[in-house]
Design brief:
This protein has three domains: 270 residues, Tachylectin-2, Chain A; 122 residues, Jelly Rolls, CATH 2.60.120.260; 127 residues, Trefoil (Acidic Fibroblast Growth Factor, subunit A), CATH 2.80.10.50. The chain is 2% helix and 43% strand. It contains two helices and 46 strands. The strands form 13 sheets. Strands 1, 2, 3, 4, 5 and 23 form a six-stranded antiparallel beta sheet that branches. Strands 6, 7, 8, 9 and 10 form a five-stranded antiparallel beta sheet that branches. Strands 24-27-32-29-30 form a five-stranded antiparallel beta sheet, with no helix packed on it. The two termini are 37 Å apart. One of its GO terms (molecular function) is hydrolase activity, hydrolyzing O-glycosyl compounds.
Length: 585
């Protein structure tokens, strides 16, 4: 667990800023609040928005950057932190400056072009590659792809499959990438920085055009756009257009004027779920500056003639979709967070941690429908734990549920806790407020709400007649394939089974009691698995308390008729003995 105090011990400053916003505004820009992020590169893949960024170290007084981060969203307001998929150590030949990069998908792989300082040399551009948009990324070449001392690469694939890499400060360059995306044909070509193509700079001794750095090229309705950072310092965002991917370029004007607390800016534009989005950075967080920046997003509409409207920094866009609370949501999926940090979880992905009394996370536009009946969270605590308060509307809003978090024996020793919920219906902003004593309280890995169930659904424990112990999921794990066993009866979510009208026994909302590998033989192991509606996950209840698997025709059985904690459950020929009888409790 991380032990540094977060940059977001800043409630007074935030409240003051919020007081200046219109009553209808939602202050969700910047999109990440627990670390400083810079130089965003948005990408849409498989219906999800990804934003790749650099990381400004806390308290930086120069461009101190050692790693890259990735965040993603399905609704443009709730963002999931995927951690550090690539850092300077990825490139053995580099020693500093994890600066502004860009990610593009091709060949079922993802390529991350980044500028770094070569050991004993100047700035060069390397390529990371991964099979997943969230990494991990590895060095694709073991050496630079291009090296001329300039920065800010951006890759573009045209409609005909031709690929290009653009980069440069103070000049502007491109190469034609080969289909493998890690080599190129010919040599680097310099794009002339004419005043007609990139605007006229005034009051500068050596530069006549506005272009400074950070080119971003895309195509819309047959026209090629290049947006870029202009006229350092302080920078604004400008753009040019061209009939082809290499020009000739014509200057079109300002996208975002100089504003905010950062003297640099860095643009990206993508379309997502019917809207157009401009992604940039500013210095809006407390302690923010040109060296401690934060990624933000604006939604916009092109003018009827295809020109980009002039934009200013706002509190951020509205939701592009709702969030489903009835499927597992990562705790690090956040619209706004106060006092939290993220770190890798022993159960995979990330978790939130370093929580103190009064810290909270917010998720927006949660679609409860007719209402939730319970809330489950995966938690860990090396101290005495605390409480998760489920609130609606604000961090001081109506409390609809309280979950007690016990000591679990370690910061990565996980268990699930469940509490009843009342009054959560419709579309709501949900605040999870973390309370307790002094010091660090607990970590949270994921959470999920549950409904009252369909007609005929009943949630209860399954208590063995022969053992007086309950059907339990080993170590309260949610992983498919986890063994189901006997354990002392308690109130935790791993012993709460919902018997559905369709014949399933569900736990954790979306895990079903399952005959492993659809087995039909005596001794087949019983596990949990993602619910799929197949007969190996369907059961019938007999009048004697037996539970029979539909596919196998065998009964749920305590192996060897044992009664001890940890006895695994299997399928066996139905025999009417007490080790095959179960009470609902």
């Amino acid at each position: 667990m991380q032990r540094r105090r977060r940059l977001l011990a800043w409630a007074v400053g935030v409240i003051s800023a919020l007081a200046l916003l219109p009553a209808t505004a939602r202050a969700d820009n910047p999109i990440v609040q627990h670390i400083y992020t810079a130089d965003p590169a948005p990408m849409v893949h498989n219906g999800r928005m990804y934003v790749y960024s650099g990381r400004d170290e806390d308290g930086s007084t120069t461009f101190t950057m050692r790693e890259w981060r990735v965040f993603s969203s399905a609704d443009m307001v709730n963002w999931t932190d995927h951690g550090v998929p690539m850092n300077l150590g990825t490139f053995a030949w580099a020693d500093a400056n994890a600066w502004a990069g860009h990610v593009i998908a091709r060949n079922s792989k993802f390529y991350w072009y980044v500028p770094v300082r070569r050991r004993g040399g100047g700035m060069a551009i390397g390529v990371g590659v991964s099979d997943s948009p969230t990494g991990p990324f590895r060095d694709a070449l073991g050496r630079p792809l291009v090296e001329n001392g300039e920065i800010d690469p951006h890759a573009f694939i045209d409609d005909n499959g031709d690929a290009y890499l653009y980069w440069g400060n103070p000049n502007l360059w491109y190469v034609r990438l080969n289909a493998d995306m890690i080599s190129f044909s010919g040599s680097a070509t310099n794009i002339p920085l004419t005043t007609a193509g990139f605007g006229t700079r005034t009051g500068h001794a050596t530069r006549t055009t506005l272009y400074e750095e950070a080119p971003w090229v895309y195509k819309r309705n047959g026209l090629y756009y290049m947006i870029f950072a202009a006229q350092c310092c302080s920078e604004f965002i400008a753009y040019s257009t061209a009939p082809g991917p290499t020009g000739p370029w014509t200057y079109r004007g300002t996208v975002m004027p100089t504003q905010g607390s950062s003297f640099t800016n860095h643009p990206g534009i993508v379309d997502y779920k019917g809207g157009s989005y401009f992604v940039y950075h500013n210095g809006a967080l407390p302690g923010g500056s040109g060296y401690t920046r934060s990624v933000a997003i604006e939604k916009f509409t092109y003018n009827s003639d295809g020109t980009i409207p002039r934009m200013t920094m706002t509190a951020g866009p509205g939701p592009a979709d709702t969030l489903n609370p009835y499927v597992r949501q990562e705790a690090e999926t956040i619209a706004w967070g106060s006092g939290i940090e993220t770190e890798p979880s022993a159960e995979g992905g990330m978790n939130i941690g370093s929580l103190h009394n009064g810290d909270y996370t917010k998720v927006r536009n949660v679609a409860f429908g007719t209402g939730a009946s319970s809330f489950t969270a995966r938690v860990a605590s090396a101290t005495s734990g605390g409480t998760i308060e489920v609130r609606l509307g604000s961090a001081t809003g109506t409390v609809v549920g309280r979950c007690t978090v016990p000591a679990t024996g370690g910061w990565q020793t996980w268990r699930s806790v469940t509490c009843p919920v009342s009054g959560a219906s419709g579309n709501q902003d949900v605040f999870l407020r973390y309370t307790g004593g002094s010091g660090f309280l607990f970590n949270v890995d994921w959470w999920q709400f549950a409904t009252g169930g369909a007609p005929g659904d009943v949630t209860s424990r399954l208590r063995g007649v022969g053992s007086n112990r309950c059907v339990d999921v080993e170590n309260a794990s949610t992983a498919p394939g986890t063994t189901v066993l006997l354990w002392d009866c308690g109130t935790a979510a791993n012993q709460q089974w919902t018997s559905t009208a369709s014949g399933e026994f569900r736990v954790f909302g979306d895990r079903c009691l399952d005959a492993y590998n659809s087995g039909t033989a005596n001794g087949t192991r019983v596990v949990i698995w993602s619910c799929n509606g197949q007969d190996n996950q369907k059961w019938t209840s007999g009048p004697d308390g037996s539970i029979r698997n539909v596919r196998a025709g065998l009964c749920l059985d305590a192996d060897g008729a044992a009664t001890a904690n940890g006895t695994r459950l299997i399928l066996w020929t139905c025999n009417g003995q007490d080790n095959q009888k179960w009470n609902r409790a």
